[in-house]
Amino acid sequence: MIPAEQLQSFADWARDLKEDELERARKGMTVKAYPKRTYVCHVGDRLEHWTGVVSGLAKIGLISSSGKATAFIGVPPGGWFGEGTVLKREPRRYDVMALRDSEIAMMNAATFHWLFENSVGFNRFLVRQINERLGHFIALAEYHRLLDAPGRLARNIAWLFNPVLYPRLGPHIDITQEEIGELSGLSRQIVNKNLKVLEGEGLLRVEHGGITVLDLERLSRYGG
DNA sequence: TCATTAAATTGTT
DNA sequence: AACAATTTAATGA
User: Fold this and answer.
1) CATH class of residue range A4-136
2) List of protein residues whose beta carbon is under 7 A from strand B
3) pLDDT tens-digit profile of A90-113?
């Protein structure tokens, strides 16, 4: 069973649970290591878990109705996803891949449904999260319609810093330019060039093996 | 603590 | 995709 204090480190929602609920959650979860470039789940999977990133970095690949990949969303440690498909008991509509060696937490569907039925705190968290995700998907329309390379880059980075979906300590994230490329669907060269552009405008700072966001507000509007 | 080396990442073509 | 330059991490004196 997962130690309570460790759970807090990657599950912000654990704060909202009462003692017995927390106990139930810890029993219904497992954490597993996924090596770089391995899939956490595939489109069409039915065995359902609510899924969270403990360490590393995951990439969600959205699939259009025609079955083609349309966009990617990066999920840093502390991010949870899959509540929609667990709630509706539907097959997954997306792939999830570990971009680097990662630890992934899985909560089994029975536990998820129990919390959904019994925990006020858990539901408060879910509403907040689903609402935030809705805004995210609306933004995705603009992303496809009118954004060029630097715009896409800015959006993808800004999304990693969504304070509701991915509560994080500070403005820094460890991520290579190659990983940013995989998330935004751009080549590493284009990423490198455009990161410099964003840096020149004072939106972020390019570091070795990471970036620090200086102006999240402007970054999330860039190009729009 | 410092020097050396290997590995990873960045920057450029 | 290839290559050079830079940064970091690991090793051992």
Assistant:
1) mainly beta
2) A 176-178, 188-189, 192-193, 195-196, 206, 208-210
3) 888 899 999 999 999 999 999 999
